[in-house]
């Protein structure tokens, strides 16, 4: 199965940190630029040597004969032979000068143009990805701040509500739980709520007005005279005269139900004394807890919106990284092919001038034939890989009920099957039902190909967004998408689970099982041991694996165990069923998850 950079350059420690993989890949890409510059320096040096050699040969051919030697014997056959040899040096010099020109025109200049374009392409891709990473990192910081603010507001609202519930009891009930009487000057009330009702009626019935001052306008102000007049009219039995009314007004001032707009300490029944109403302690507590709950609800909306925006940013970031890695792979293939073509041109150019170097050129051509870009890509990916593609969604975590009611992707199997109680997550059941109902319209080979096809995030993410709302998933929703997209979404769902289906705990026991050498007759014993290990995982995981394997077994029932497709399917599905919690240089090359899948199917 061909190697794809999108499967190798991700973070093995923190799936939300894309920098390690991208940085490693970009460093390798720019290493390729340095390699091309080394080749260009080599070609320039080779051209200089050829030109120097041509000059030396030409100078050697024009060297004057010694008057005491061949110059004295122009007709001798030896002299003519020597002159021919000298002439051949000049001809050879011209040929080497042509060789230098041919190397410059046919090898050096095309390679230089490619390197310049290649460098610009790499810089543009690196800068675009860097810009996207910085924006995504800023959104992650904003998300952390939003969650902290949301959590704090919820705690404040809960505390305010508890305070609001406790305070009225402490004010209105005595130690025995009976209503306490309330006094307001000479007026006796049966309880504090009765007094609050009396004050509310007073506030609504006494005429008020706005009073200007140096500090602004005092709204809804009442006079001491107006308060006493109302008291004498409303409670004549308690406020027989102005003095008794002033006593009630003084009590209202002392207990904080009214406040003067000017600094005074004694209440008078005067039109010039103006007062403003103050809220009662119960009303203030009630307003405080309602305001706190409103702030918590607003913070919740802001946090949820931030989660959705950051999650959309994450998915877009991964789409862009998929595109970037694919472009880098194509660029690296193009670079290796271009260098290969340059070396071929160099070999052909040299072989055209020096016949006796033909053997060397043939050897060079043999070497070039062994240069395979696909192999270099595989070596690069395997030696410098930082981790497979293992996306970790940003979940909205409700302060009260967690994550499972608001989304599907990234939520553990246990949470998804808790309410309502299910044995297999709803999304897996619906996807498999959709695929099985659509099998009749497609060829079996075509269906199989979709399980091993490269994951198309741009097509899968819209379906993911459609079903990832915490609502009931229906077959009607899935029928709006191609079956290939439904299968891709199921694979992405398994990738984004917080823990693989077989659980992290079985990674090394199963690895040990497959490391032991097993004779052909003992293969069934190994499968029995594998079943025993799988029996230890949680029931939801076991049932989910069983449902998936039944579907896959039906799809591959007519295939041989050694069929090439089985290897490709195991390569794709192995890490979805079994992967380690943290990838290392050793685990990156493990193949027992793939062997396990082939045995199970």
UniProtKB/TrEMBL annotation:
GO terms for cellular component: cytoplasm; division septum; plasma membrane. InterPro entries: AH/BAR_dom_sf, DEP_dom, F_BAR_dom, FCH_dom, Rho_GTPase_activation_prot, RhoGAP_dom, WH-like_DNA-bd_sf, WH_DNA-bd_sf. PROSITE patterns: DEP, F_BAR, RHOGAP. GO terms for molecular function: GTPase activator activity. SUPFAM superfamilies: BAR/IMD domain-like, GTPase activation domain, GAP, Winged helix' DNA-binding domain. Keywords: Coiled coil. Pfam families: DEP, FCH, RhoGAP. Residues 126-153 form a coiled coil. Residues 202-279 form the DEP domain. It comes from the Eukaryota. Gene3D superfamilies: Arfaptin homology (AH) domain/BAR domain, Rho GTPase activation protein, Winged helix-like DNA-binding domain superfamily/Winged helix DNA-binding domain. The keyword Plastid does not apply. Residues 411-601 form the Rho-GAP domain. Residues 3-376 form the F-BAR domain. GO terms for biological process: cytoskeleton organization; small GTPase-mediated signal transduction. PANTHER family: PROLINE-SERINE-THREONINE PHOSPHATASE INTERACTING PROTEIN 1, RHO-GTPASE-ACTIVATING PROTEIN RGD2. This is Rho GTPase activation protein. It comes from Piptocephalis cylindrospora.
